[in-house]
Design goal:
The chain is an all-alpha fold and about 160 residues long. About 65% of the residues lie in helices and about 0% in strands. Strands 1-2 form a two-stranded antiparallel sheet.
């Protein structure tokens, strides 16, 4: 289906050379003892420096469990991969919010079927209304006739590729 393919398309993003340098500098700054890796606490500080929030225990546990067990912490290359994934997630969260806001022309905080029709008429004018209705029903998780940002975000993250 058109929307599902749009919502699940693979995206790639690469940091600019200056962003990568910044990440390396943050790594070096947080590796105070020059041990060549970041401990749990070092990683938390790095996330605060780069993203402005302290990661929760679950997030840190998840990251630390993915680290090579033969090392004592997060090596630079692993750190760069982790930060790249976090940055991508942040960018796509912003993108999803922007798309939702563009659909929500009346600024109500939810989308109606009419909002969906209007949006699809602009991006896919030949798409049958029946298909738009099917998409709307699929995205409207609680079948209340409104698509909240949470419904919309879920569809954007977990859309199914249908033929």
């Amino acid at each position: 289906m058109f929307l599902s393919e749009l919502l699940t398309r693979q995206r790639t993003w690469e940091p600019s050379p200056s962003e990568r340098r910044q990440w390396v500098e943050v790594f070096k700054t947080c590796d105070e003892d020059r041990k060549g890796y970041l401990s749990r606490e070092d990683f938390k500080v790095a996330v605060v420096m780069l993203f402005g929030y302290k990661p929760c225990k679950v997030e840190v546990d998840s990251v630390m469990s993915s680290v090579n067990p033969n090392t004592s912490g997060i090596l630079l290359e692993e750190f760069l991969k982790i930060i790249k994934k976090k940055k991508e997630a942040q960018l796509y969260q912003n993108e999803r919010r922007h798309i939702f806001t563009a659909f929500d022309v009346r600024y109500r905080g939810f989308l109606t079927f009419e909002d969906f029709k209007r949006a699809f008429q602009e991006v896919a004018p030949r798409l049958p209304e029946r298909t738009v209705l099917e998409v709307f029903r699929e995205v409207d998780q609680d079948s209340d006739g409104h698509v909240s940002f949470r419904d919309f975000e879920y569809a954007m993250k977990h859309g199914k590729n249908e033929a």
